[in-house]
Design goal:
extended
């Protein structure tokens, strides 16, 4: 083995000044953040005792209330996630087609599609839920539409990228043979994007199961409504049961999606 020789050099004054400026900026941003958070030292010191008291109230979970207050809300949550995902796919497919430059070679339509996709992703699910609760009233309909609109950006963007990555050979052959556009899409594009489409569907449904558990806190249906009710009534043993149910559903959904995706792709 030969000894490696390293030539150590000090930072130049400009580099040291730049590093100092970055560290100073980070320290100032951290200090400003601490001031805006308004941490109360008394509450911070008392937090461990409060957490211990809260966990003592939450244990053991009130399993007797599952059939009465939790089961129907849990099923409604799964329905919201499933229907919201289907609504998102239905709305995202035309937007994804419009965003793909190889399918829609019109810059104005491409930018319009990107605007729709970015707008959908930039608004949080809870904000969509608040908006649609105001439109449709509290319930599962508002939650389903909120989940659907939130998912358009995710599904449409990934489908548009999958369409742009398609091999142009089969498409050109179908066009040369005089095939109509529907046949070109079904025979040329769809076989290439089908694995990505089903992967996107499963992944988004998995995400929507999580998000549909939260939007009920603003009245958009699902198990979040039961959780909000239990919190307002200080039924901590029922709160722990609901949290355990949410955790179990998320884990089961993750396992199912992983297994199904492994078989499809």
């Amino acid at each position: 083995m030969t000894d490696q020789h390293y030539d150590w050099q000090r930072f130049t004054p400009a580099q040291r000044l730049a590093r100092f400026t970055v560290f100073l900026g980070l320290a100032m941003a951290f200090a400003v953040s601490l001031r805006s958070v308004s941490i109360i030292p008394e509450f911070l010191l008392d937090a461990p005792a409060q957490m211990a008291d809260l966990f003592a109230r939450m244990w053991p979970p009130d399993t007797a209330s599952y059939k009465i207050n939790v089961h129907d809300s849990l099923i409604e949550t799964l329905n919201i996630a499933g229907l919201g995902t289907m609504l998102a796919l239905l709305l995202a497919l035309p937007v994804g087609l419009m965003s793909a430059k190889n399918i829609t070679p019109v810059p104005v339509l491409n930018w319009l599609a990107k605007l729709i996709l970015v707008s959908s992703r930039s608004v949080n699910s809870l904000v969509w839920a608040i908006l649609f609760v105001a439109v449709f009233g509290p319930g599962a309909l508002a939650g389903t539409v909120a989940i659907g609109f939130r998912s358009i950006g995710f599904c449409g963007k990934l489908m548009g990228e999958a369409l742009e990555e398609c091999d142009p050979g089969p498409i050109e052959a179908l066009k040369a043979a005089g095939a109509p556009w529907a046949s070109i899409f079904l025979k040329g594009y769809w076989p290439q994007i089908a694995p990505a489409f089903w992967g996107i569907t499963l992944f988004r449904w998995d995400i929507n199961v999580r998000e549909s558990s939260v939007i009920g806190l603003v009245g958009a249906g699902g198990i979040g409504v039961a959780l909000d009710t239990a919190l307002n009534l200080f039924r901590w043993d029922e709160v722990s049961l609901i949290l355990l149910c949410i955790f179990a559903v998320v884990i089961v959904a993750e396992v199912l999606v992983t297994k199904i995706r492994g078989r499809i792709i």
